[in-house]
Amino acid sequence: MIGSKSALICSLALTVFTGPALADTVNFDFIAKTKQSSVPYMTGTGEGVIHLASEWLPIEAQGTPLDGATGSCFGTAAMAAGRMTGDGYCSYTDTAGEMVTLRWWLANTEKAAGYWQFIGGTGKWASAVGGGRWLDMPGEKEGMGAAHITGTVEFP
What is the pLDDT of residue 23? Predict the structure, then answer.
C-alpha cells in the first residue's frame, strides 16, 4: 500500500511539474489610481444602490503586462444593512493597443472589496486566464480613488 501511494504521489508531481507546457504566471500587486464618477442612490443609512464608474489613470505596475494600461470600470452595488453586493466589468487598453476585459464582483462585504477575473480581450489577452482580489482605497483628493490590486495572469 505504501508503495502505491508513493507511486501516485510521484506521478502527480511529474504531471504538475512536467505535464502540459506550463504558461508563465505573472503576479500583480499594485495600487491603481482612478477618477471616480459614481452616483449613490441611498434610501437610508447603509441602504441603497450605487452606480459605480471610474476611469483608470495609466496603471503603474512595472514588470507586468498591465503597466501603462488605461481604461474604464462600471457596475452596480447594492447596500443593505451596511453590506455590499454587486458586480461589473472593466475594459482596458494596454500600451501595445490590445484590449483587456475583466469582470469584478463584491460578495456581501462591509468594505468596497472583492474579486476580479480576466474574461477576454484582443491579442494575448484573448486567452489570458487569472484573477485576484481588489480593495478600494481613498484617493489623493476629491473625485479621485485608488484600488489595491493583487492576483495573477497566465497566457496559455
Answer: 66
pLDDT category at 6 given cuts 50, 70, 90 is very low
Predicted model pTM: 0.80
> In this structure, which amino acid lies at residue 95?
T
Where b means 16+ CB within 10 Å and e means fewer, 25-64 reads ebebebebbbebebeeeeeeeeeebbebbbebeebebeeb
Give the distance, in angstroms, between the CA of residue 107 and the centroid of all CA atoms in the same chain: 14
How big is the CA angle at 107 (ends 101 and 109), to the nearest 5 degrees? 120
